[in-house]
Each structure stands twice: as structure tokens, then as C-alpha cells.
Amino acid sequence: IHANDAVLRASGLLIKEIIGKSCLEVFHGKHSGCNPQNCPAKRLFESGCVEEEEMEIEAFGGFYLVSCTPMFHPDGSLKQIIHIATDITERKKYYEALKESEQNFREMTSLLPQTIYETDLQGKFTFVNQRGLETFGYNMNDFDKGLSLYQMLPPSEIAKAKKNIELLFKNNSNNGNEYTAIKKDGTVVPVIIYTTVFYKNNVPIGLRGLLVDISEQKKTQNLILENERKFKSLISNLPGFVYRCNYDEKWSMLYISDLCEEITGYSPDDFIDNKNISFNEIISKDDQERLWIVWK
């Protein structure tokens, strides 16, 4: 029975082409045989209350948030319905693109061999990739019940983690922090966590992180340290000193054991990279060239 100028501009219709026709016929196609899904006007007839719905309006060529408000006669019977359509086409496109981007992110992280996660600002997980769940012995049922980043850390590490998160917000950068994490079965595992803040409308809404299990790296480091300890113990009991040098005329030292000072009067530091003296200089002049020729 009435339409404002905004309706005429959006639809490209004249007022006489609208008056007397149903909204279904005008806005959703002349040959439309039924109400669109979740039609707010249809729901209003059932509820008698204001109803609204996001829907496509073909005549306007976009998506609109449509609200239907009932107006009543004094006797309480329905007099008319006021339709208000707000254009949300661009917002709809933005959210669809965001949804697609989010889906691509989820699919990509499912292929990675490391744990990828997101949390809210309180540390509650809002996303964990499948690798992360498997690494820590959890499943989707555990996730749906609610898991926190701090559940993965022993009490002794929680204060450290919170402090690092404070620094992250302050400095807006993170080079990775090492922690001891706890699996569901109580097993502990050394990890490095790289974290960043992610935003919505320039407001921080959570944390996104990459967690790397460094168990094998730690084992390798410990093995190297143990081998170094054994090596030092071995050479300390030898009657002479041990060295490793470059193949050049100065016999430039890369490593030389401590006993060299007792034998030569020079410390290991004097020889390393020819800092104060080269090894060749403590060899007699008569033997320097001969020794070089023999090894050459």
C-alpha cells in the first residue's frame, strides 16, 4: 500500500508498479511460486511479533536485512506490516570472503606437521589443528568441552607464559619462547612456542601460535654435550695435547687442548685463529718447510 523513494530507487520500479502487489511478487520475482525460505512476514503472521531475516532480494540485486513490524487496529487485529530492508550486500560479501579465508586457513593448517592454535584473550583454545590434538593426546570431544593453553603447562611455567604474553602485547613481536608442556597423559615434552596477536577491527581478540616439539633437538643437544664431556675427559688424560687445524702454511688452529700451555708456554686462546701466534711459529725454521712439503 506504500513504498518510499529508497524502494523505488533500489528496485527501479514506479510507485504504480508496486502499489497493490504483494512483496513476494515485487521483490522476489513475478513467477515466484512460494515465499522465500525463512520469510519474516510469514513468521510474523504466526508470531504476531517483529521478525527479521537476512535474505536475497532479487529486485534490489543484493542481500538485505529485512525486518517486519506489525501494526494493529484498536481491536487488536493486524492492520499492516512495515517492511524495513537494510542493504548488507557488501557486509555479506566481506563475511563470505572472511569465511572462505578462514576455511582455507583451517585446511592449510591441517596439512602442517606442527601444532597450530588460536586462543581467546583468556587463553581458551578457539582452534587447534589435528596435529596439535594428536600430539597432546586430545580429541575433538575434549576440545568442545573447553581446553586452555594453561592446561598444557605446569604451574611453574604459567607465570612465565603470562609474562611473555604481556611482553607480546607491549612489543608486538615474539621470537619464540621455550616451555615444558604437558600432554593429556601427563607426559612432559619440551616445546618452543611462537605467538602473535590477531585483531578484529583493530581490537585484539586473541592469540595465534605455532608450537614446535623440540624433543629430538633436546636429545641431540644432550648427546653432543655428553660426547663433549667424554672427549674432554679423554684428552685431559693424554700425555700430550690434541689439536685440530686448517690445512695451511700457518697450521691455523681451530681447537687445541689445555695441555698445550704446559708444553709450549702458550695458552689455547693464543693459538686459535692465530690470535697471538701461529702454530707454525713454534716449529723450528729448519723443520717448517720440510713439514709443509711432507704434508703437502
What does this structure look like?
By secondary structure, the chain is α+β, with helices and mostly antiparallel strands. Helix content is 40%, strand content 25%. It has twelve helices and ten strands. It has helices at 5-11, 15-18, 23-27, 40-47, 89-109, 130-136, 140-145, 155-171, 215-235, 259-264, 268-271, 285-295; strands at residues 51-57, 62-72, 78-87, 115-120, 125-128, 177-182, 188-200, 203-213, 243-245, 253-256. The strands form three sheets. Strands 5-4-8-7-6 form a five-stranded antiparallel β-sheet. Strands 1-2-3 form a three-stranded antiparallel β-sheet, sandwiched between helices. A two-stranded antiparallel ribbon has the order 9-10. The longest helix has 21 residues, at 89-109. It starts with a helix and ends with a helix. The relative contact order is 0.05. The mean pLDDT is 84.
What would you say about this model in short?
This protein is α+β, with helices and mostly antiparallel strands and 296 residues long.
